[in-house]
Amino acid sequence: MEERLYVERKNNTRECIDWDNFGFGLRPTDFMYVMKCTLGGEWGKGKLQPFGNLEISPAAAVLNYGQGLFEGLKAYRTEDERILLFRPEENAMRLIAGADRMSMPSLPVDSFLHAVEQAVLANKRWIPPPGKGSLYIRPLLIGTGGVLGLNPAPEYTFVIYVSPVGCYFKGGLAPIDLEVESFYHRAAPGGTGGVKTIGNYAPVLKTQLKAKGKGFSDVLYLDAVENKYVEEVSSCNIFMVKDNVISTPELKGTILPGITRKSIVELAGSCGYEVFERPVDVEELLAADEVFCTGTAVVVNPVGSITYESRRIKYNGGEVGEVAKELYEALTNIQMGRAEDKMGWIVEL
Ligand code: COI
């Protein structure tokens, strides 16, 4: 265990990692995986290279017109030193769907899985000890070829970099406080809210920073048409529980099809809950018994309060709700190899 607490840097210094107290931030690791493709052409041979800057044209389509997608998944180290990935083929398929929407060449599922495996194994020493966090894997598919007129890029780059991470929100799994945003919207029908394109994320920063300035953890968005149906939080999906029935906003093109969201829907069903994917009115959410968020980065995170206009509703007296707790345990036990993977979700490296 000792050698995992100290990580040697390239300049021969040793960094001591305090695995008990590190949050969700970028911690550069040793290698990244890079693969290139021309528009309509074949993907070249991917390779591992030292983690570092990419050299791209200032005219790159990703820089000028936002032609880019990203993914997020995690690798866990188990007590018996196995390395587990959670549903990586789901990320591969979501990237293919996103590439179609963003007019980019997609990457075959097998190539995606191979690249993830290479990136994780090359950075194996950065996977936190069991129970102390995970290795967050960030695949990017970006238009790196230069364009001036508005056209798809003539060249694309697929990159995977990784970073060890702990809990996403400050305070670990403590319930978070959300503010409902009713002026700005995250996505509109017919737009790109349902794909993981880079352009969906910078616009939420303004409202997120404003909310954080008021002491909230994040922002909850409403639909852009009626401004009353719950969509998602800036960084994760949302669920509510009322009378032991679980509901989450249905996917209709404006909500990110989260892999944790999908897994929780399936897992809750197998735990005996009734689960509905349907429109959720913000008023219903305020009247819920329990609310929680899901995402690769946030995992399952209870919501302690929601503030909508001048109303602040608290859930579970500030404690973690029973359903969120049960589903968090059920999910993370599978992800960390502590429970039998009856769903066939785990890929062992
Ligand atoms: C993830 O959960 O993997 C995401 O991509 C959310 C991101 C804002 C950290």
UniProtKB/TrEMBL annotation:
<dbReference type="InterPro" id="IPR033939">
    <property type="entry name" value="BCAT_family"/>
</dbReference>
<dbReference type="Pfam" id="PF01063">
    <property type="entry name" value="Aminotran_4"/>
</dbReference>
<dbReference type="InterPro" id="IPR036038">
    <property type="entry name" value="Aminotransferase-like"/>
</dbReference>
<dbReference type="InterPro" id="IPR043131">
    <property type="entry name" value="BCAT-like_N"/>
</dbReference>
<protein>
    <submittedName>
        <fullName>Uncharacterized protein</fullName>
    </submittedName>
</protein>
<dbReference type="InterPro" id="IPR043132">
    <property type="entry name" value="BCAT-like_C"/>
</dbReference>
<dbReference type="InterPro" id="IPR005786">
    <property type="entry name" value="B_amino_transII"/>
</dbReference>
<dbReference type="InterPro" id="IPR018300">
    <property type="entry name" value="Aminotrans_IV_CS"/>
</dbReference>
<dbReference type="InterPro" id="IPR001544">
    <property type="entry name" value="Aminotrans_IV"/>
</dbReference>
